[in-house]
């Protein structure tokens, strides 16, 4: 049996025996506090889910999946002060990104790099100012067109540029995952973290929250190394905590692009793998405090908007962690108990699971 088959066959990643691992303490630094939630959450959640199900012609099974995923709750924490119309646009993007992303993780495009590339090129056309009136465009791509149209109609050229660049990075990361899976190459932990920087889908949320809160920031702010590092740290915190909490789901589905799984494939035990990835997260928390304290000043008016932008990065990270324990997507009905005890039951790794280590 070749490596590719081992990577892609979920049954080889399962075991009837269970073991318990202790998760790292993820509620540190600014994540210690209870998050603010947008007051329009419940109303907009229903509207947004109805929209994505209708536009994409999803069946009842997918509609239930989106409802249980509840990405509107994520958005309600990410943009707690957004007015209803802009909050709705943010929720629409969130309810779009999960079914779209799943096509490349464990869906029909998982093993089709050329078709994946064409879908991504089609997706990027409106953001790059290209004619997107093509009857062959997928419904889920057309749904994103609607989000792009609303964002670009009422925002700055800076937000447009940042959103386009972030989406390009996301598309590149998703395509790299498909390519790596087919190329049968086991990445290092450092390479996996670099790949997840883009493929996690976190970075587009920054300009979307900037849009949702109607922030007014000069471009020079985004050129500042401290701001850029805070953005990177936010992405890393989301990607790392995501890989920790989605481990059960991704292991069961045979998705190898997970930092914990990569550590195991390099020979670490399950607990060692969680500890290693948890150490990366703790390093991010420590570095965040240092960098935030070093942010320069641009004058009172700009400083106030800069602080709102930094708070937006924090809100995205906070949203991801709190949503991960609320949604049924990763931890099911055991989420509250896992949050309280930090103990997660996982299948023991099989012999075949280890044979990928080189």
In terms of DSSP E residues, the strand content is under 5%
CATH topology: Farnesyl Diphosphate Synthase
Shape: globular
Please identify the structural class as seen in this structure.
Answer: mainly alpha
Discrete helix count: 18
**Helix content percent band:** 55-70%
Quick tags:
mainly alpha, disordered N terminus, Farnesyl Diphosphate Synthase, 358 residues, Terpene_cyclase-like_2, disordered C terminus, two-stranded antiparallel sheet, 2 strands
Could you write a compact summary of the structure shown?
Its EC number is 4.2.3.-. The chain is mainly alpha-helical. It contains 18 helices and two strands.
Fold and architecture overview:
This protein is mainly alpha-helical and 358 residues long. It has a single domain, classed as Farnesyl Diphosphate Synthase, CATH 1.10.600. 65% of the residues lie in helices and 3% in strands. The chain has 18 helices and 2 strands. It is globular, with a radius of gyration of 20 Å. The N terminus and C terminus are likely disordered.
